[in-house]
Amino acid sequence: MKHPSKKLVWLVLGGLGLLAAWACNSRRSATENDSAATAAAPPADTAAMTGSSPDFNQTVTFKQYSFVVHAKGKDTLRRLTITGNDSANAFGEVNAPLAGSIYYAAAADLDNDGKPEVYCFARGADSSHYTKVYAYAIDPKGNMPISFPELTQQGGARYKGYDSVYIEKGYIVRTFPTGADTGDSIQRKSIRYRLKHGPSAYRLEQVQ
Question: Which pTM value belongs to this model?
Answer without folding.
Answer: 0.69
